[in-house]
Write a structure and sequence with these properties.
By secondary structure, the protein is mainly α. 42% of the residues lie in helices and 0% in strands. It contains 2 helices and no strands.
Length: 71
């Protein structure tokens, strides 16, 4: 799936729809940040978790750590 990228104008319009104040000098930076987030999420969507159980099924083993005065 390809992503065309968010333009600064689209970033401003989305911020306005969400009720956020986005000053003109921030449009390009917000668009770039949104594009970066989208690219990271796209990679995560491609991961195959197979038989990995959901997080609530995970039980961390109780680990006792020896006190260390050298800290």
């Amino acid at each position: 799936m390809s992503h065309a990228g968010l333009t600064p104008r689209e970033a401003a319009r989305s911020a306005h729809r969400a009720g956020l104040v986005l000053h003109d000098d921030r449009h390009a930076a917000v668009a770039a940040a949104a594009d970066h987030i989208h690219s990271v999420v796209a990679v995560l969507r491609e991961l195959d978790f197979g038989d990995t159980p959901p997080a609530p099924a995970y039980r961390a083993a109780a680990v006792k750590e020896a006190p260390d005065a050298a800290l």
